[in-house]
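Exercise 7. Predict the structure of DUF2795 domain-containing protein from Candidatus Cardinium hertigii.
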Amino acid sequence: MYWTLELISYLEDAPWPATKDELIDYAKRSGAPLEVISNLEELDNDDYPYSSVEEIWPDYPTGDDFVFNEDEY
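Solution. The predicted structure, encoded as tokens:
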């Protein structure tokens, strides 16, 4: 299983919290690439509801990961 920013972006608007099966269904209905569906199928727990993208991909970059000095602009 591997995630990229492009692949995980297909799940950003998913109806959170969601189980593995709900996320797979959402990915299929939203036209996500096969890699996204394959990655979701590799998740461990079928019944556990995931509350966000960060639970699926712990390394998902957040706004705090980007250094941007607003005072410069």
